[in-house]
Every structure is written in structure tokens, then in C-alpha cells.
Amino acid sequence: MNWPFLIYIFVNAAFALLISPFYMSLIKKIKAWTQRRKGPPLFQTYYNIAKLMKKEVVYSSNSSWIMRTTPYANMIAVLAAAMFVPLAFVPQGFDGVGNIILFVYLLAVARFFMALSGLDAGSTFGGMGSSREMSLSAIIEPTTIVVFAALAFTFKTTNLHEIFTETAKFPAFVMNPSLFLISIPLFLVIIVETARVPVDNPETHLELTMIHEAMILEQSGRNLALMELSSAVKQTLLTGVLVNVLMPWGLATEFTLQAILFSMLAFFAKAAAISIIIGLFESALAKIRLFLLPHIFMLAFFLSVLAILLEVF
Amino acid sequence: MTLGLFWGWIMLENLFFAGLVAWFAGATLPLISISSDSKTFRRISLGIYAIASLLLADVSLFAAYKNITIAITIYKILPQIQFSFMLDRLSALFVLMISVVSLCASIYSVGYVEHGHHKVRKNLLVSLMGFFILSMILVVSSANTFAFIFFWETMSLSSFFLVMYEYEKKETRKAGIFYFAMTQLSTVFLITAFVVLYAINGSFDIRHTAFADPSLLTAVFLLLFVGFSIKAGVIPFHKWLPYAHPASPSNISALMSGLMIKVAIYGMMRFLLFALAPELWWGILVLSAGIISAILGVIYAMKENDLKRLLAYSSIENIGVVLVGLGLYLIFSQSGLPSLAILGLAGALFHAFNHAIFKSLLFLTSGSVVYSTGTRNIEEMGGLVHRMPFTAISFFIGALSISALPPLSGFVGEFLIFQSFLDSHALADPMLRLLMVTCLSSFALTSALAAACFVKAFGAVFLAVPRTENAQKAHEVPKSMIAGPIILAALCVVLGIFSRQIFKSLGFSIDSPDLFFIGVFLIASYALTFAVLRAASSGKVRISETWGCGIISQNGRMEYTASGFAQPLVRMLKAIYRTEERSERKFFDSQSSIFKEGKAEMRLMQFFEEYIYMPIARAVNTASKAVAHLQTGSLDDYIAYTFVAVVVLLLVVGWII
User: What is the maximal distance between C-alpha atoms in chain A?
Assistant: First the structure.
């Protein structure tokens, strides 16, 4: 292991932690604007996290160590996943770091713990959320893997670092039609994985609609802050994959301060653009009935298989 | 291993032999005192098992690590027919797997066997368990097909008796008879294949095959594949497995699900890798069988509420995963891509090994749960994490591992298989690549469903509030029943974290991610997160009740049930479950607004039973009835039959010659 790599790990994670809450508020703001409301301030999520840190943690008397470890497990799994998605600077490859499958499964670790914590307190809401989350994640999994397989087939590698190096080197690669095809299902995967409309509604606490919110209903205080922060980082990471595949302009591959700072700024702007699209997408759609969701997933699946077909023949 | 290094390889044969003798001695000991209820005898016997396991684990680890072959001949009946054994790397790996699992199962059994009431049965359980494990060790180390089939049969017989342990239950008798019929069917296929192999080779040697007509070899392959598939529980030959594995005592379930189905996998690997010359379509067949088993196995597991049956279905899934790896190996090696082929094979072997470990872990811990609560129905459990903390943590590690979550061992095998799927763009044939993508997406569904299935199992059994009084009164099991599973849980962690180093030390250059690094990173970031929170947050904690929308004092009836948890998936996958839903409603008034009474039922169609097994069973029954007409019971008729048979035989023989 070399020192730029260590610095990369630290800086990348810190960068992701720093900017992620911003996008959560940004999406809320966009949704508010489309409804002719003023909306929360752009830094509201930071305030929320700071506020939650100061509050006490309330544990249910039924809950066990699952409830207590889940926030940490979520955070560290997402932080480990952050190594895999270079947001601003692509380091020289290190064994296995950047592997697509490991990335997907690190996110699965976070989900596994979250689903169990939903069941831990014995609340019906939590159980409902866990059940729906695990069902939907199982149904979307083929699509997720096939999207990443399409990337792997296109770039002939399974390492995200190598894929990004490739796209950063040849921005003209953007004109590759299969990348456009891949980006649509990838966008849908982001929507599903980050619990957004039309799959889930992050804003309500009504049992008919909620999935993610139901699972973390029993979390409180600093634990809730960790959960919120880790799902924000998860969203940034997935957005990062889309950004760096589809619009890699400015992504730094050499280790200089100037390039990296510029690249960070560029990433910040590009991810904001994606967040605005997510916000508009959310405003334009209504929540879809749970049992109709597999249809959307089929659409995403079909598009990614189409991308693979393009590469195969 | 230190022992092996110290004594040198000259002594390895003797050590191996000593291990086998120790197993035999341990297994005969309880038979000597069969009618006395002597705890000490059983303990000594289980102690001997543990020592013999350690010895064999030592020898096989050394043989696998140094890649040397140990060969011994124990008994020669005829020059051709002899009981000779050898440990090459493949056999050593399986012997190691069997030894490690049986070490932990023996420790577990010290506490477990004592909860029975029949003294003869307790002694028999210990003794048969020994013979069962010894037979498995001898099958995987057989050097010729004669010894292989002999010990295959002793393995089947001893496990049949173990399944019938609680024979007074009707359900168990049904399971036992079904198992026996299927296992004999598998032997029929194997014996036929071995006879053909003998005709080709002129010897019973297991290691190589003389050059022969390809169509003959294909026939041998198909016979072996069906024979081993029946024993391994590959769909559609799986139906006996979800009956037989739950019916037996839990320590035996662990051995059957963790090891015995692996012995069938060993057989498949032995012949496909060394004895036969595979063709491309063999690989496609194995891959398809694997995918179908994996996906249907986990889908049925998702629905199941019987804890041990859920695990049995999950074994079918994992056998499917192993077959997928093996199929990929065959396909890639026939397409001239040796590095990818090794990836697939390494995935299959590593997953087989790990499945033995985490599945026996899960079966042993669920055995503890059944021991404490007295039920196998997960709807009647709940809240056990507070009552059985050690069992809960062991089960949890097993669940993490079987859900293929990094950095535990279950992830590594599936990862290698995923990796070889994703690298399949190197294949030349576009149709093959399409097949790969199709299989890849089904494979992805499999592992995600496994995670859902084990969230359900762990959640319903261990979390929240007890749903019944029995679960309320449950308490932690005796120490030995904690110790056995804990060793296996530790192995799940170690084998995952050090997977890359293990591959390297065995001399395989496999590009698997460094999970040790990931593990260190996870621990470091945990420490960092903890420190930051300690400094930045208030640190106040309060214990209160779960929010129940204003309802005070929640009870177990209000929480989410296991069936409820599975319901969304059951509904989405309705076409596969073939559930039939029917509801009838009656109303007091004509506008159908005041509800009077109603009936709703959901029926699960047993697809394989209704469409494959029962038609065959019915056909056999009809045929036997037709034949039964000949059996009149009068001696004259039988003499007449004999006379006719002799005449016909003479005519036929005369006509041929």
C-alpha cells in the first residue's frame, strides 16, 4: 500500500461525508419549488444531524444488541463502500478495492443490519418496513447486478477504479450508445436503493407507503443521525457511479492538489445536477403500488440486458 | 499441522490409518454397553471422535497444503477387489471438511444426546453417528469404485437409521422410507455407471479412465450425474431432502446437510475432473441444473416456517451454487479459458467447504433452539436473543455468512462465481455469453433472496418479543452445545477474512479481494466513528417501550409474523409458488355491506410431487398390480412359471448362439 492510496481513502470518505447531506436538502428544496413552496434551507440536513447528535438515544426495552450495533454497521459498511467509488480522484489500483461485486455486497451488509433492526423492537411498522425492503431489494438485485455486468462487459473489467480511469482518459467515450442505455437502469437502481418516489416515499410516516422510514422508526438521537448520514452517503456513492460513467469531465487521475480540488468542485456540481433531476423525477411521479413495482424493475432489467446485447454481438 | 510437520510424511499413512481405527473404536464403544444408560461411555466415545477428527484434520490439512498423495490398502479380498484408500488434494479437502464439522458436532452432541429418554437409543445415536461419519470419510478417500460404493452404502444405511431415530412419529417414518427409496435409486445409477466404467477400464481404479467411445462416456456421465444429483438433492431429485433432514436429530441434520450432500458433490467432481473427458454441453447441463436448484431452493426456503426445513431448502440452494461453479469450470475449460475455469472451480470448492461449515453451524444452533423451545415452527418463537445470547450470536454469524455478506466466508465462494460470470465476455461464442448473462441474473436473485430469507429466520426466531409461552420460558443450552457452534462461527470469520491468503498459500493465483484489508478497514472506521460520536454527541441513553400507537404493554401477538414477512415475495413470485387463493364471503344484506361470515384459504401446490413424483409412483403401483395377478399363491402355478421361463431362456440362448 502506498501513501497516496491511504490519503485517497481518507479524503474520499471525508469528501463524501461532507457533501452528502447537502443533496438530501437540495432534493427537498427542488420538490418544494415545484409545489410553489419555499422549502427548507439548503443546509437543513446538516442542522438536523447536529440536532440529533445532542438528543438522547431511546432504546425499546424489547430491543437487543442488533438495535445498538446497526447504526455503526451501516456507517462503516457505507464508509468501506466509499473506498470503491472514487468521487474526485482515481488512485492507482489496489488489490480488490473497487470491485463491483464487493461494492454491491457492502451495501447489502448495511441493508441486512437495517432490516434486522426494524424487527428488533417488535413494532409492526418496523417489521413491515423490513419485509418490504428485503422483498424489493431481492427483486431489484438481478437488475443491479446486470447493470454492473453491462458496465463490466463494456469496459472489460470489473473494477470501478479501472472503469473510471478509462472514462476519465477518453471523455469521447461518452458517445458510446450502450453507456446511455446503461445510465437509465442505473438511474432506476439509484431510485430504488435510496428509497425515493415512486418506490418509497421518504417524507411520509404513513404505513401504506413507507419502507425505509418504517425500518428506522425506532432509531433515535445519535443513532438516527448515523443512519441518516449513512443513507445520504450511500446516495452520493451511487450517484458518483452514474456521474463518473456518464459525465467524467474533470475527474482527476494524477495526484496533484490543483487537479484534485478542481475535480472536487466539478463533482459537486455534477452530483447537484443529478440531484436536481432526482428531485424533478420525484415531483413528476406518484408513489406506485408495492405490487406493481416489479414492472418498473423489469423495464430497468430489460434496458440493461439490451446494453449487454449491444456489447455481445 | 505441527504434528504432521514433526513426524514427516513417512508417518502420514500411519496417522491416517490410526485416525480411521480410532473412529471405528469410538463407534463400537457405545454398542458394548448398549443396554446400560452410561453417560461416561457415551462421553468417552464422543471424546474419541473429537480426537480422531483432530488427527484426520491434521493429516488432511498437511496433505492438501503440501499437495502430496497418501495411499493405503487396508484389506484385499481379491487382487481386483480391495479396500484401498488415498488422499490426494481433492480427497484431503473433503476429509478436512468432514473432520472439522464432525469435531464440532461431537462436542455439541455431548450435551445434545442426553436430552433423550431411551437409553438404548441414546447409545445407538452416538454409535451410528460414528459409523456415519467414518463411512463418509472412507467414501471420499476411496481409491477404487468398489470401496466407494461399499462405503457409500454403509453411509446411506447408517444415515437411514439415524433419520428413523424418532420412528414412532408417522411423519418420521414417511421421511425415512422416502429417503431410503431415493438413496437406493441413486445407488442403482451409480452401480450401473461403475459397471460400465469397469467394462471400459478392466479395473476398479477411480483415478483414470482408458480411452473409450465418447457416447459410452456420455452414458457414464449421465448415470453418474443423476446418481449423485439424487443424493445431493439437486432439483428435481430433491424431494426427499426437506423431509429427511428435519426429521433426524439436529446433530445428524447438521452432518447430513453439511457433509453428506457434499460427499455426492465430491463424487461428481472426482469423476468429472479426473476420470472423464468432459464436453461443453455437460457443463451447460451442470450449470442449468445448478441455477434451477439455487433459485427454486431459496424461493421455497423463503416460504418455509419450519426452521429446520427452511435450512434444508437452503441447502438445496447452496448445492445449486456449487454446481454453478462446477458448470462454469466445465464450460470455460472447454472454451480454452483456463484462468476463468480455475476461478469457477475455486468458487465451487470454497463454497462447498464453507457451506459445510455455516450450514452445520445453523443446524446445530437451530437444534439448540428446538431443544429449548420444543418446537420447530418459527411463528412460535421470538425474543430468544435475550434468553439464548450465545446461540443467537452463533446463528447470527452463520446467517451473515450464508447471506454472502463480506467479509465472512460465504461471500468469497459466491464472489468467485460472480467474478467468473462477469469475466465471461472473454467467451468467443455469443450464444454462450447470452447464456451467461441469463444465468448471472438468476444467480443474483438467488443471493439476494437468501439474505431476505435469513433476515426472516433470524428476526422471527431471535428478535422482538416471544410469541408463545414456550419461547418465553426458553433458556440457554448446556455449555457443550454452545462450544461446538462457536468454533464453527469463528471459522466462518477466519475463512472469510483470510481467504486471499489461503488461496495464495495453496498456490492458486486467484484475484480475490483482500478481505483482511476490508476487515481491518471496518474495524478502524468503527473505532473512528465511535470516537467521533463519543466526542460530539450527548451520550444520554434511555430505555423505554416500543411505540405502539398509544397501546401500552405490547405483546407478541402484535409484532410482524414470519408469514407476514414473507408475504410480499410470496405474492410477487406467485407464479413459481403456484399458490391458489380462494375466498368466500357472506353478507347479511343485499348490498354486501354488513359482513356475516367468510372463509379464505391459500393452498400451496406441491408442483414436483403432483407432476413428477406421484405419476411415477402411480405408474409403478399400476404395474405392480398387474404383476400381482400372476401371484396366485398356488404352488402348481409357480412351477408352471418356472418351466415356461426355463424353456423361453433355452430358446433365446439357443437362438443367439
Answer: 59
Residues of B with Cβ-Cβ distance to A64 under 8 angstroms? 385-386, 392, 462-463
Q: How far apart are CA A131 and CA B311, in angstroms?
A: 19
CA distance B603 to A47: 52
pLDDT in tens, A241-266: 999 888 888 788 777 888 888 899 99
Could you tell me if B152 and B183 are in contact, meaning their C-beta atoms sit under 8 angstroms apart? no
Band of pLDDT at residue B332, cut at 50, 70 and 90: very high
Query: B525: which chain A residues are within 8 Å (Cβ-Cβ)?
Result: 13, 75-76, 79-80
* Residue A101, CA distances (Å) to A309, B414, B526, B646 in order: 21, 10, 22, 68
Asked whether the beta carbons of residue A64 and residue B411 sit closer than 8 angstroms, the reply is: no
Phi, psi (degrees; rounded to nearest 5) at A277: -60, -45
Q: Which of A105, A213, A291 to mutate to test the interface with B (most CBs of B within 10 A)?
A: A105
DSSP B467: S
Partner A contacted by B533 (CB < 8 A): yes
Burial label, B623 (beta-carbon count in 10 A; 0-12, 13-18, 19+): exposed
Domain boundaries, chain A: 3-312
Nearest-Cα residue of chain B relative to residue A97: B513
pLDDT at B204 over 70: yes
Which residues are CB-neighbours of A155 under 8 A, at least 6 positions away? A162, A163, A166
ipTM over 0.90 threshold: yes
Considering chain B, what is the average pLDDT of its residues? Answer: 89
Q: How far is A251 from chain B (nearest CA, A)?
A: 25
Q: Is B407 helix (H, G, I), strand (E, B) or coil?
A: coil
Chain A residues within an 8 Å CB radius of B423 = 152, 158
Write out pLDDT tens, residues B370-422.
999 989 999 999 889 999 999 999 999 999 999 999 889 999 999 999 999 99
CA angle B288/A147/A22 to nearest 5° reads 145
pLDDT, tens digit, 9 for 90 and up, residues B457-477: 999 999 988 888 888 888 889
CB contact under 8 A, B567 and A131: yes
A87 vs chain B: nearest CA distance in angstroms?
A: 19
| CB of B411 closer than 8 Å to CB of B496 | yes
CB within 8 A of B156, min separation 6: which ones? B180, B183, B184, B187
